[in-house]
Amino acid sequence: MKHTISALVENYSGVLSRISGLFSARGFNINSLTVGETEDPTVSRMTIVVDGDERTLEQVKKQLNKLIDVITVHDLTKTRFIDRELILIKVAVESPKDRCEIIEIAGNMKADVVDLGSQTITVEAAGDTPAIDKLVGSLRQFGIKEIVRTGKIAMSLDPMEKAQKTPKEEEE
Amino acid sequence: MKHTISALVENYSGVLSRISGLFSARGFNINSLTVGETEDPTVSRMTIVVDGDERTLEQVKKQLNKLIDVITVHDLTKTRFIDRELILIKVAVESPKDRCEIIEIAGNMKADVVDLGSQTITVEAAGDTPAIDKLVGSLRQFGIKEIVRTGKIAMSLDPMEKAQKTPKEEEE
What we know:
Oligomer: homodimer
CATH architecture of the largest domain in chain A: 2-Layer Sandwich
CATH superfamily of the largest domain in chain A: ACT domain
CATH topology of the largest domain in chain A: Alpha-Beta Plaits
Helix content of chain A: 25-40%
Largest sheet of chain A: 5 strands, antiparallel
Structural class of chain A: alpha+beta
Shape of chain A: elongated
CATH class of the largest domain in chain A: Alpha Beta
Strand content of chain A: 35-45%
Distance between the termini of chain A: 36 Å
């Protein structure tokens, strides 16, 4: 089963290595991982999507909580949450007809054209994974030159999930 | 100086730990890191933004290239490239007036409202870092409950940057 883990961590050199090492030591494969800034420059938020059984994941969560750099850890999988990712796709353009069609597909699928090259078009889109996969599927016919995807970020929408907030974020 | 590194890596358990360990051993602080899927399920693309001097970074790049899990490594900083990130922001709503104002700010700044709670509004936005920072700045007055940001993803727009493409992506 896929689990979406959200963790607040101290922004020190080495914390990422320790956390990812903890997952790999247990044989969990990380599907995606993002580390981004928060309002506090000393704190980062990690979103990790992993495949694994409930029991082993419970152990990993306990070990994460023991790490001194880890402030909070949550498995969002059982809460009401939203997840999103971002993609940049560079598509081959071989004719003016291709160009029009790619721009039209992008427009229909809420993607933005961010660069028009002589032989490529680069588009950007944000959405949930099925929407992003559908966009990639629609553009594949033209020839995909390059794809860069962020991993997923996720946020609990459950108002009871008070622990999601750090004291630092509440001060804002 | 900030460097934006784009690397294609084998999608094995442990590769992230080895790569992040390599940066932390040299004292580089990772500003942001994303690992996302590519068209090939056995290959992931990492985008890493790090602060550090040119010479030490050159050494890190060399060591990355030596890792068996690393397929290609590029420092995009000197090419023409685009970078983007994605943010989810949960904002406090204390009155109907707040609600209207937040929705208006989101609309003006190309952000989408993704959840309307009884006491919060959650918005999503994609853009370059200055645009995202500006949105956060505009919403701060209402009280920010939670922020989740992906790290940056980046793509070279230079048609000469042939090495950016892997043989696998060219087959598409």
